[in-house]
Amino acid sequence: MCERLVSAGKVFKLKEKTDFQSLAAKLKNLRKEEQYNEDNYNFSLQTEVRDLSLDDRVLRGVFSWDIITHIFHRGKNIPVPKTIEASFSFARKEEIMFLTIVEKKSLANNIANQLSEALFITTGNIVESKISPEVLRSFHESNPEDTKVIFFDDIDIPNINKLSLYGSALLNTSLYNDYCDHGQIWYLVFKSKKHGNIVGLTRDTVVTIFNQIEDSDFIDYVMDEIFPLVK
Questions:
Q1: pLDDT of the residue at 48
Q2: How many domains does the chain have?
Q3: Collapsed DSSP state (helix, strand, coil) of residue 97
Q4: CA-to-CA distance for 189 and 126, rounded, in angstroms?
Q5: CB contact at 8 A, 166 and 176
Q6: Does 220 fall in a domain?
Q7: What pLDDT digit, counting tens, does each position of 138-166 carry?
Q8: In a domain, 106, yes or no
């Protein structure tokens, strides 16, 4: 896939035990087509998985999905077909089978549900993965000089929903300790020491990489640095 200036993705996990061969066999034949009709506009919309590859570490592929958007043209909203192509991977870390989808949160959620239906007949077998507030705080405090932004949620101060800190050496500020007393870390922006990426990470494992990176390298980074944080 192409190299983007900013890449977003989300990590999920499978509730049902399975293996790479079973996943590959089901995804290989995933192809759907439906007709879309609106006024005098008719489109054939396709959903398919392509470019599957499997090694002993990861099952990779591309989820290709046609959707309809609308553009305003001379007083009318005109339907226009658009193809979403999202790289994805299944990879195992200890007892957990993870799914990583390289796409913005809302689209990644939709694709995860479609993959769940294709693999397990129903939604709900591919679910969100979570990082505990304690683990995210420990992750920051182990490399405090690399953290650039911190957002806090679950604030116990009335009428305050979120707090944030920007800058270097955040760990050594009194505000950091005060904010930790009043809330929990929800979002970090940091520089990965090992990979050099500038990364945004939320507790529901939405990952944003703010430097140019190929989809395959995005997936490799997530497997290496984010999977170990998931509870």
A1: 97
A2: 2
A3: strand
A4: 27
A5: no
A6: no
A7: 999 988 888 999 999 999 999 999 999 99
A8: yes
Q: Which among 19, 31, 96 is positioned nearest to 62, based on CA atoms? A: 31
Q: Where is 49: in which H helix or E strand?
A: strand 41-54
Model confidence pLDDT, tens digit, residues 28-80: 989 999 999 998 899 999 999 999 999 878 999 999 999 999 999 999 899 99
CATH assignment at residue 93:
3.30.530
| H helix runs in the chain, sequence order | 20-28, 105-120, 133-142, 174-182, 215-221
Q: Which residues contact 177 (CB under 8 A, 6 or more apart)?
A: none
Mean pLDDT score, 180-209? 96
Are 36 and 43 contacting, i.e. CB atoms less than 8 angstroms apart?
yes
Cα separation, 167 vs 194, in Å, equals 21
Q: Which two tokens stand for residue 183?
A: 């809330």
**15 and 122 in one domain?**
yes
What value does the mean pLDDT take over residues 210-217? 95
| pLDDT at res. 4 | 63
Q: What is the pLDDT of residue 170?
A: 76
Structural domain range at position 97: 3-128
Q: Is 18 in the same domain as 82?
A: yes
Residues 24 and 87: their CA atoms lie apart, in Å, by 15
